Amino acid sequence: MYAIVDIETTGGVKGPTRITEIAVFRYDGRQVVDSFHSLVNPQTFIPPFITRLTGIDNRMVQNAPTFAEIADPVRNLTRDAWFVAHNVHFDYNFIKKEYEWLDEYFKRDLLCTVRLSRKIFPGFKSYSLGNLCQSLQISIKDRHRASGDAAATVRLFEMLLHHDKQRLIPVD
C-alpha cells in the first residue's frame, strides 16, 4: 500500500512554518482506494511570495481546520503504507513536525518519486514535478496546489511502477 502525499506550506521546513494544504491518495498498486484533501489553517501568516506561488492566501485558510483537526485522517491514510511524495523529505518532515507539535510520534517508510524517476527514467534535464510531468506527458491541473500535484504524482508513480524493471519499488 502507498500513501501518495503533497502539501503546500508557509515556507521552508525550518522554523515556525506550517502546512496550508494537504492531499493524500491511498493507492494499492492498481488504483486509488481512498483520499483526503483539505486546506489547513496554519495559525501563522502566509507570506505574499507563497500566495503568488500557490494562490493560497490568509483569507482562504482562516476558517479551515488546523492540522490538529485533520491529524486523524492523515494518520489513518498513511498508516501501514509507504509514504510517497515528489521530494519526499520535504513533505514528510513537515507532517512529522506537525505531529511533533501535537506531542505525537510519526514514522513512515519513505519513497521519493524524484529519486525513483532519476533511476527509472534517466537522462531528463530536470526532475522537478512540472518538468518531469511535461516530459512524460502527464497533465497537472492546479499546479502548486496539493490535490493537483498529488494527483499528478499518482500518475507518475503508476508510470514508475510500470517501468520499474530493476524492482526498486517495494510491492506488497
UniProtKB/TrEMBL annotation:
InterPro entries: DnaQ, Ribonucl_H, RNaseH-like_sf, RNaseH_sf. It comes from the Bacteria. GO terms for biological process: DNA replication proofreading. GO terms for cellular component: cytosol. Residues 1-166 form the Exonuclease domain. Keywords: Nucleotidyltransferase, Transferase. DNA polymerase III is a complex, multichain enzyme responsible for most of the replicative synthesis in bacteria. The epsilon subunit contain the editing function and is a proofreading 3'-5' exonuclease. This is DNA polymerase-3 subunit epsilon. It comes from Rhabdobacter roseus.
